[in-house]
Amino acid sequence: MSGAIALEGLDLAALLCSRVCHDLISPVGAIANGLEVMEDGKDEETAKFAMDLIKKSAKTASAKLQFCRLAFGAAGSAGAQIDTGDAEKVTRGLMEDEKTKVVWNLPRVLLAKNRVKLLLNMMLLAGQAIPRGGQLTVDQLGEGDSIGFRVSATGTNAKVPQSIPPLLAGGSADHPVDAHAIQPFYTGLLAKNCGLSPAMAVEGDVVVVSAR
Known about the structure:
By secondary structure, the chain is of the alpha+beta class. The chain has helices spanning 9-40, 44-71, 84-95, 113-128, 164-168, 182-193, and strands spanning 81-83, 100-104, 110-112, 134-141, 148-154, 198-203, 206-211. The chain is globular, with a radius of gyration of 19 Å. The two termini are 17 Å apart.
């Protein structure tokens, strides 16, 4: 893309770290609040409320850390492969709840780590399309070393955030890359590394995130 933004390695690392920290601040802060409530609580009901808050927040923080480890981290040495079964597990742990269902139509295989990281980042983009919940369906595109992915997001008022497509394409002066924008920008970098073209668009009443 003409005018695409180029980030230095240190800037990219710093922005990704900011993104991960932003994701973890809420559940970790809730754990701290729960501990304070337990210390100040003077009755059993308050203590139970605090413990429930701590357990729920710890589970959320753990799910986010496990997902981020695969989606943003090295996840092994250079050239390592990742089991798509592990990718499915962390995706369900983070994204599947009473409001959102994940349909995973991929076989369990070992894929190059950047291809799996791409898929996980595509899942995050698709999740943003259905803030009220719905269904995320993952399908395979192509075969072998050229395998790509299609993630379909179905839900009430599903839509494509306006900033994401240009960031997937590399960003621009009108769409600068900061800590809030780094994740879709990084998704585009991963797709390019895998020799794939990323896109996010509406097809009927479904938002589709694809890399082919």
